[in-house]
Amino acid sequence: MESSLKLYEQWLTDNGLIHNIDEDGDLHFKYQMCNFFILNPQEDDQFLHIILPNIWSIESEEERMNALKVANELNMGRKVLKVVVGESNTTLTVEMFIDQTPDVEDFMERLLDILIEGRQLFAKRMHDLMKE
């Protein structure tokens, strides 16, 4: 099987998305004005992990508690999406297993759109909570 990272890189090229590989071997690219990473699946070539980092800065304990509440709502209500609330920021990821001969065209754009939609939903819900 061809390296899954090479398949993702080819998909990015085929779709005209400029990308690079960082010092960790991860793919970095922009899609619809957002910065994404596809992590290098070093130990498990059948694991796909896409990250949309730093979507929301956490500036207070109250904001962190609200972020955790919204993360829980989205994690339970959305397929594939994971919201990770850290000490100072929030990151979105999708994680899934792929088969040995994936057709990346079948799922990549949908996964990226899920992350973008998750970012929008997270921001809307956070703004709503801040108004309360």
Describe this structure in words.
The longest helix has 24 residues. 20% of the residues are buried. The protein has a six-stranded antiparallel sheet. The protein is elongated. It has 132 residues and is an alpha+beta fold.
List keywords for this structure.
3 helices; 132 residues; 29% strand; six-stranded antiparallel beta sheet; single chain; alpha+beta; 6 strands; 39% helix
Question: What's the structural blueprint in terms of helices and strands?
Answer:
Blueprint lengths: L3 H11 L4 E3 L5 E5 L2 E5 L8 E11 L3 H17 L3 E5 L3 E9 L10 H24 L1
Antiparallel strand pairs: 1-2, 2-3, 3-4, 4-6, 5-6
In short:
With 132 residues, the chain is of the alpha+beta class.
Number of DSSP helical runs: 3
Distance between the termini: 52 Å
Using DSSP, what is the number of strands? 6
| Order of helical and strand elements | HEEEEHEEH
- Sheet-strand content, in percent, reads 25-35%
Q: Structural class, judged by helices and strands?
A: alpha+beta
Query: Unreliable segments (pLDDT under 50, ≥5 consecutive)?
Result: none
Question: Can you give the mean pLDDT?
Answer: 93
Widest sheet, order of strands: 1-2-3-4-6-5
Largest sheet: 6 strands, antiparallel
